[in-house]
Design a protein that fits this description.
heterodimer; A: alpha+beta; DNA polymerase, domain 1; five-stranded mixed beta sheet; B: 725 residues; alpha+beta; Aldehyde Oxidoreductase, domain 4; 30 strands; 27% helix
Chain lengths: 149, 725
């Protein structure tokens, strides 16, 4: 049994300790907002926060994050209020298919925690998620909108 | 933890005669049709519109939403004529089974070829207009006044002389009992209030909270998960597999053959299934295709460049005579590779089979194709099949004409009757089993007279036919008309230049690699071929690339219109900033006219794209904010294809298995895209999701020549050692 803290709730899961965190979040815990895109930490669709830092959960063995504070897209809003990145994504109509956006939003939220007023260079080095629909122009605009707000 | 996707309950449509009981609807009204009800009992006014008692407007959407914004655009079209309160609009997908049972009241479900809006705008608007007239009539009947004295706006009906008002929700029951009007008059575009507005998408909130349920997220009671491997050599088969080696692994329930070429492991979780599949010994019978490589395919296509036999796609004058008598000739050979769609959501489908019923839950660009595939594979009548659609995590043509993953899911489910099974492909499986952007080479020969006027052009394509691969019944005497997208004689992909002697022909060279539709597809390579060669011709004639093109475009005013627009915006008439170089490209695609102008700089092996101006004339614009997003997004797809993407063949199979070897551009490389949306009306509506992609690559390649004097004639640029800064 491994004890996980996800979105402020404790979960006991009975899995092989090498199972990637992504699949435990999806299949044992039942939170399906976190997506699978590549399984090799290339695309970022599986990005969650572990103790506040953006982590690609598809290559993170679940045993390595036992006891740490894990946040998924479902836990980003707090007190019934959307996170400012989620709100900016709505205000600026960022998502297209939306499949990569859980990971994109988690990556951006982690960046803004570190750097509330990121430059374009900060965005370029921190946000390396793949989006095949091609929302990058709107993602950049929405990040700057959030920073100004 | 399980849940039933909510639409399995919600969008179940039933005729009133079948309801009975508390709704007391067995009664037929003497002059009206039976009321059709949505699952919650709310009445359907027309097939497109359901009104709930609380005034909620449910607009039915037959086409699929895969990111392109079609769902919102189609709802705007209905809402415009319905005169409803936009803030009360919600949408639902009718199912393909309901469509079959009701004789296709929603028309085509297919969502490809940028057709979602352009080919259904008229009938969905009529569906909204008819509903509005019925709602007004119902109010007028209640008030015993002529309908002509009543009007509707924002879901409120007003009797003008008396000032009395009511709402759609209050008269919906009565309206649903009325006979729909035989014909309705649609608004003049000048009167549009909802169409043409940059309204927010209806599907965004769930996409930022993780609530959006994709096919990949389906969970059904008792569901198991399947991982699959199909023979990595196209056309190969399974010789044997040793299920006993993995049956003891945790969670594994069954190992099953899938057709004669695949094996799937079914387990409690997908991770267990995948882990067991990776450990499963499988022996493949790779067959003769294992001898094929990229080099042998390239040789096969090269021979087609000079073959005597070819299908003609566009012809006027006598190109042989013109070229033989030319004062100067220019010749070049271009090449474009196999490319995978790489949708972010890998292929998946969930199936539940019993001898009496086959149900499939699937992200699909064409619910009717998914339905036909399920029915054929299950070998059940249509009345015993159903398909539930989800918003797609990307489509780009992969989830349209061929739905192999639906057939696989049903084949697996048939071996476990009564148990729902979700089949999910790994990214590796997705990369190895695409229906790829067709491979193509092109030889172009242009001839000038003594005054540097272009007198002849021969464009010889050699390569795959998509239709021959996936819809051979659509070939025209062996010829594939789709091959000539953007360079065709007539139609939605007609050529944008007038050249006195022209021949465009195709030496069809099909390979064992399955081709398929792709975002843009044949326009992508055709635009590289023709638009880069136009630059080569301009250079040979010592003329400016813009001026050279203009002389050939007098009979193509809309092509010229978008090209002039990008040239003006980028400042073509003035020199670019020092160290910056420009390129141009234009094409007509899917009945829209598109052009791009780029500004780039080159530092060693790195291309930095500073600026892209992109114009589109789709005739009409339903939601300009979404059109902008399709334009900027098209550059991400198109530039990723230009710089990085090639699927190479070795031993009969694809070599690239994931994003580490099949890259896609990131935000750091995203240039600023300045869209120009310039609809010019007319009788024909153009598409938006795909056209712009074709101008991305040639506009950059032409700028690269200006910067370096080097012509790049094959994609991707990584093969030339060139990177994207």
């Amino acid at each position: 049994m491994i004890t996980l803290s996800i979105n402020g709730k404790s979960h006991e899961v009975d899995v092989d300790p090498n199972t990637p965190l992504l699949w435990v979040i999806r299949e044992q815990v039942g939170l399906t907002g976190t997506k699978y895109g590549c399984g090799i930490a290339q695309c970022g669709a599986c990005t969650v926060h572990v103790d506040g830092a953006a982590v690609r959960s598809c290559v993170m063995p679940v045993s390595a994050v036992a006891g740490q504070k894990i946040t998924t897209i479902e836990g980003l809003a707090s007190g019934g209020k959307l996170h400012k990145v989620q709100q900016a994504w709505i205000d600026h109509d960022v998502p297209q298919c939306g499949y990569c956006q859980s990971g994109m939003i988690m990556a951006v939220a982690a960046l803004l925690r570190e750097k509330p007023q990121p430059t374009d260079a900060d965005i370029n080095s921190a946000i390396t998620n793949i989006c095949r629909c091609g929302t990058f122009q709107q993602v950049r605009e929405a990040i700057h909108m959030t920073a100004k707000a | 933890m399980t849940f039933m996707p909510k639409f399995t309950r919600r969008s179940f449509l039933i005729g009133s005669a079948a309801v009975g009981g508390g709704l007391a609807l067995g009664v037929r009204f003497p002059f009206g049709p039976a009321v059709v009800r949505a699952a919650d009992g709310s009445p359907e006014i027309t097939a497109w519109v359901v009104i709930r008692p609380d005034d909620t407007v449910v607009i039915r959407i037959a086409r699929s939403e895969m990111g392109q914004g079609t769902l919102t655009g189609l709802a705007q079209l209905v809402a415009e004529e319905l005169e409803c309160d936009w803030s009360k609009v919600t949408t639902e997908y009718p199912t393909p089974g309901q469509s079959v049972a009701r004789k296709r009241p929603w028309g085509d479900f297919g969502t490809g070829g940028s057709r979602g809006i352009r080919e259904s705008h008229e009938y969905v608007r009529k569906g909204g207009a008819a509903a509005r007239e019925m709602l007004i009539q119902a109010a007028a009947d209640q008030w015993k006044v002529p309908a002509s004295e009543c009007s509707a706006s924002n879901s409120v009906i007003t009797h003008k002389p008396s000032g009395r008002t009511t709402t759609y929700g209050k008269v919906a029951e009565a309206a649903a009992k009325l006979e729909p009007p035989a014909d309705v008059k649609l608004k003049d575009p000048k009167e549009w209030k909802v169409i043409g507005k940059p309204l927010k998408r209806l599907d965004t909130p769930d996409k930022v909270t993780g609530k959006q349920v994709y096919g990949f997220d389906v969970r059904l009671p008792g569901m198991l998960n399947a991982a699959i491997k199909d023979c990595p050599v196209f056309g190969g088969k399974v010789k044997s597999f040793d299920a006993a080696k993995v049956m003891g692994m945790k969670g594994v329930r069954k190992v099953v053959p899938v057709g004669d070429s695949g094996v799937a492991v079914v387990a409690e979780t997908w991770w267990q299934a995948k882990t067991a599949l990776d450990a499963l010994p499988i022996v493949w019978d790779e067959g003769a295709n294992a001898q094929v490589s990229s080099a042998t395919i390239a040789e096969f296509l090269k021979a087609g460049l000079d073959a005597n036999e070819a299908f003609v796609g566009n012809q006027n004058g006598d190109v042989k005579v013109a070229l033989a008598g030319a004062a100067k000739k220019v010749e070049a050979v271009y090449a474009y590779p196999f490319q995978n769609h790489a949708t972010m959501e890998p292929m998946n489908a969930t199936a539940l089979y019993t001898p009496d019923k086959c149900e499939v839950w699937v992200p699909t660009q064409n619910g009717e194709t998914a339905f036909a595939t399920a029915q054929r594979t299950a070998d059940l009548p249509a009345s015993k099949c159903e398909v539930h659609k989800f918003n797609l995590g990307g489509g780009f043509g992969r989830r349209a004409a061929v739905q192999d993953y639906v057939a696989q899911a049903v084949l697996i489910a048939k071996q476990m009757p009564g148990t729902p099974v979700k089949l999910l492909w790994s990214r590796e499986e997705d990369m190895l089993h695409g229906f790829y952007h067709p491979i193509m080479q092109c030889k172009l020969v242009g001839g000038f007279d003594a005054n540097n006027n272009l007198t002849g052009l021969h464009m010889r394509l050699s390569g795959q036919s998509i239709l021959a691969g996936i819809r051979p019944e659509a070939l025209q005497n062996g010829r594939d008309p789709v091959t000539f997208q953007g360079i065709a004689q007539t139609g939605e992909h007609s050529f944008g230049y007038t050249i006195p002697n022209l021949l465009v022909d195709h030496a069809m060279r099909n390979t064992h690699v399955p081709p398929g539709f792709w975002r843009g597809v044949n326009i992508n390579h055709n635009c590289v071929f023709i638009e880069c060669f136009m630059d080569e011709l301009a250079h040979a004639a010592g003329q400016d690339p813009l001026e050279f093109r203009r002389k050939l475009m007098a009979e193509h005013p809309r092509n010229l219109g978008v090209m002039n627009a990008v040239a003006e915006r980028i400042g073509w008439s003035k020199p670019p900033p020092r160290g910056v170089y420009r390129g141009l490209a234009q094409m007509k695609a899917f009945n829209s006219f598109v052009a791009a102008a780029t500004e780039i700089s080159v530092d060693g092996n790195k291309i930095k794209i500073h600026r892209i101006v992109a114009a589109t004339d789709p005739g009409y614009v339903v939601n300009p904010a979404q059109v902008e997003r399709q334009i900027s997004g098209s550059f991400v797809y198109g530039l990723s294809a230009l710089f990085y993407q090639e699927c190479t063949v070795k031993g009969g199979r694809m070599e690239q298995e994931n994003f580490n070897t099949y890259n896609s551009m990131r935000i750091a490389q995203m240039p600023k895209v300045e869209p120009i949306i310039m609809p010019t009306g007319g009788p024909i509506w153009g598409g938006v999701g795909e056209p712009t992609i074709c101008v991305a690559a040639p506009a950059v390649l032409n700028a690269y020549f200006q910067a370096t004097g080097k012509r790049i004639r094959s994609v991707p640029l990584k093969n030339h050692g060139i990177e994207m800064a």
